[in-house]
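Q: What structure does this chain adopt?
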Amino acid sequence: MDFGVTGKLGGYYLAGQYRKNAAAGKSGGVSFAELAAAKAAGQSDVSGMSFKDMWQARYPGAYYHVMDGSAISQGAWDRNDFPLEKFFRDDTDTSVTNWKPTGAEPEATSPQVQSRWNSTLGQKSIIVPPELEEKMKNDPELAKRVMANVENFITTYTATSVRPGRVCSWLISLDENGEIEKYRVTGGGGNISGPTEEEQRQFEAEQAAKKKRREEYARLNEESALKRRLMEQEADERYYKDSMTKKAVSIAAYRPPRSGRWPGAPRPHRRKPQYIRPGCTSSKSRAS
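A:
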């Protein structure tokens, strides 16, 4: 059974091993990578070699893709159904960086996952962002440093985390500065009794980190939804208060005065009552 490991090099856990290698003169600097790449390419030095040339000279048959690996979320990258096998061929296009899961994550032991991982064993692939590619074309020294860093990582990881006899595939994504942004290492063969203690610890740590990220994402979504509801409620209350205030002002503006007559309105005609003394009749009565 194959065992896959994913990661993001943000914790510098290999830094100590790098320093030990450098002190011992083992794969620790640019000169080692330069000599190894030049030797593999049959050249006396690496002057004029591009990063792609050094990468494929050091690892014959390795794949090289210029695309923005940062567009792939860490959550998608870590999933067992992430289509990593698409990076182990030459006709891969940038649409793979937009991959989104469509269902529940399958188990690592499922036949589909094992089949896809098996198809990549023994191969290497690297993702280089366009910005870095342009920088390295104009700065050969930068290309050498990036190559040394990548080779150092593969060498150190193999020495510290891969059991003897295991065959691994390597998928590495660089950031725009040439640092390893994230990686996937899939191993098969060798002692199949189970993962090493180091692999098991790393696997458990990754699962715990994934769970923590999912819980944090759910918490942020819940807080965002609550905040949105409160904002909507406050907006409704402000609208209601404004409406009531405008209504009160409108009523006050059109309320008639105490006299019951609006300013400028014509006075009603009131006929004064006639006083008739007892025993007398009105002129109208006498005329009749």
